[in-house]
UniProtKB/TrEMBL annotation:
Biased composition regions of type Basic residues, renumbered to the chain: 305-318
Transmembrane segments: 12-34, 78-99, 111-135, 167-189, 210-231, 270-292
Taxonomic source organism: Mediterraneibacter gnavus (strain CC55_001C)
Gene3D superfamilies given in the database record: MetI-like (1.10.3720.10)
Record's subcellular location: Cell membrane
Descriptive protein name: ABC transmembrane type-1 domain-containing protein
Length: 318
C-alpha cells in the first residue's frame, strides 16, 4: 500500500508570522489603554510627598473636567488645527494636480518631490525651536525687517494671539503638506488616463476636470488624509509646547488638549489624565466617523440614486 503524503498546513505559518504584532500590541497598547480607562474612575494623585489613592470615585473626574477649562483648550486645538490644515490641503491639492498633469510636461519632478517632502523629515521639536529663535523679539526676522527700514521697532510675534496661532498653524502646515502632496499625487496617478482624455474630447477645461473628475475619484484618499489630520490635530503637542514654553501663552490661547493632559501627568494626577484621555478617544472616534460618512461615496456611478428615482416613479404610477 502506498503511504499517504502528509499535507502541509500553510495557514498556521500566517498566524505564526502575525503573532509578534499582536503580542506587542497587547503588551504595549491594549493593556495600557485598559489601564488608562480604569484609572479614570479613581482618585489617584500626588500631593507633595503624599500619594492619595487610588480611591474609586466613579464619574467625578469626568464631571470635574467639564467644569474646568477643557472646552476652552478644545476650541484652541480646533482653531490651531484649522489654521494649519486648510492651507495644507489646498496647497497639496494644487501641487498634486500640477505635478500629475501630463500636458504640462514638468521637468525635474523627482527633485521637487524630494524638496517638498524634506520638512516632514525634520523633527517637530527642532522645527519649533528654529521658529522660536527666528521670530523672537531679537531674532533674525525682526532684525532683517528693521535693517531694510520696514519696521521701526521689533514685532512681538509670540506676544499676540494672532501671531502665536499663525506661527503654530504655519509650522504644522509646512511640516505636513509634502506628505499630503505625495499621497494625493499617488491617488491621482491611479486614475486611468482614458478618463482624462475623454474629458478633453468633451471640452472640459482644467478647472472642470479637477472639480468634476479628479476630486470625486480621489475621495477615499481625501477621507484618509482628513481623518489622520484630525487625529494628529487632537494630538498636537510638541510645536505649541516648545514655542510657548509649555504655558500656551498669550493667556493660554495656544494651550491644546494634549498640553492640558501633560500638565496633569506632570502633577501626577493620573485619574484626571485618564479621564481626559478617554474624552480625547471618544471625540476623535466621533469626528472620524462623521468625516468617513461624509466623504465615503457608496454610489460612485449614481446607479443607486437612479434606482431610487425609478422606484419612486413606479409608486406614483400605482
Amino acid at each position: 500500500m502506498k503511504k499517504k503524503k502528509k499535507s502541509i498546513d500553510y495557514g498556521k505559518w500566517g498566524y505564526i508570522f502575525i503573532l509578534p504584532f499582536f503580542v506587542t500590541y497587547i503588551i504595549f497598547s491594549l493593556i495600557p489603554l485598559i489601564d488608562t480607562v480604569r484609572y479614570s474612575f479613581f482618585e489617584y494623585y500626588r500631593s507633595g510627598i503624599k500619594e492619595v489613592g487610588p480611591n474609586f470615585i466613579g464619574m467625578a473626574n469626568y464631571v470635574s473636567l467639564l467644569h474646568s477649562d477643557m472646552l476652552k483648550y478644545g476650541a484652541n486645538t480646533l482653531i490651531l488645527w484649522m489654521i494649519g490644515f486648510i492651507p495644507q490641503i489646498v496647497i497639496a491639492l494644487v501641487l498634486a494636480a500640477w505635478f500629475t498633469d501630463v500636458r504640462l510636461k514638468i521637468r525635474g519632478q523627482q527633485f521637487f518631490k524630494v524638496v517638498i517632502y524634506l520638512p516632514n523629515l525634520i523633527m517637530a521639536s527642532a522645527f519649533a525651536l528654529l521658529f522660536f529663535t527666528m521670530f523672537s523679539t531679537n531674532g533674525p526676522i525682526n532684525s532683517i525687517l528693521m535693517s531694510i527700514g520696514i519696521l521701526k521697532k521689533p514685532i512681538d510675534f509670540l506676544g499676540s494671539v494672532f501671531g502665536t496661532r499663525s506661527l503654530i498653524g504655519f509650522m504644522n502646515s509646512l511640516m505636513w503638506f509634502g506628505n499630503t502632496t505625495i499621497m494625493l499625487m499617488a491617488a491621482i496617478m491611479g486614475i486611468s488616463q482614458d478618463v482624462f482624455e475623454a474629458s478633453d474630447l468633451d471640452g472640459c477645461n482644467s478647472i472642470q476636470r479637477f472639480f468634476y473628475i479628479t476630486l470625486p475619484l480621489i475621495r477615499p484618499i481625501l477621507a484618509y488624509t482628513l481623518i489622520t489630520s484630525i487625529i494628529g490635530g487632537l494630538q498636537m503637542f510638541d510645536v505649541p509646547q516648545i514655542l510657548t514654553n509649555g504655558q500656551g501663552n498669550p493667556n493660554r490661547t495656544s494651550m491644546t488638549l494634549i498640553m492640558f493632559l501633560n500638565s496633569h501627568l506632570k502633577s501626577k494626577n493620573y485619574g484626571m489624565a485618564g479621564a481626559l484621555s478617554v474624552y480625547l478617544f471618544v471625540v476623535s472616534a466621533i469626528l472620524c466617523f462623521f468625516v468617513y460618512r461624509m466623504t465615503n461615496d457608496n454610489d460612485p456611478d449614481g446607479s443607486k440614486k437612479a434606482a431610487k428615482k425609478r422606484a419612486k416613479a413606479e409608486r406614483r404610477k400605482r
